[in-house]
Amino acid sequence: MFDLETNKAIALRLVEVFNGRRLDLLEDVLHPEFRGRGISAFPPDGPEVGPGARRKLYEMFYQAIPDARAEVLDVVAEGDKVVLVDRFGPLYSRAATDEPLIPPARDR
After folding, report:
1. Spatial separation of the C-alpha atoms in residues 88 and 81, rounded to whole Å
2. Dihedral of CA 54/58/60/61: which sign?
């Protein structure tokens, strides 16, 4: 039997680690033999194994989008699988002015 709530909590903890830039906590959150499937936009050739593989994925995002954040919209769990539906991207606002860095498509 699987503990769905525990599995969901682990998946949500990964989002906290990502948003908080706390890659040092990946080893605490993920099992050494963790097998990830990447993300749909950039699926790996094979399963990524261990916290180090997830670290590389997160570092790639931080380099490409320095202010990247994930916002969880929904969590679905069944058996030993957990799926997060999230919104991912930069913050899109300037702290001093709150003006969008990229205007919404309707304003272009």
Report:
1. 21
2. positive
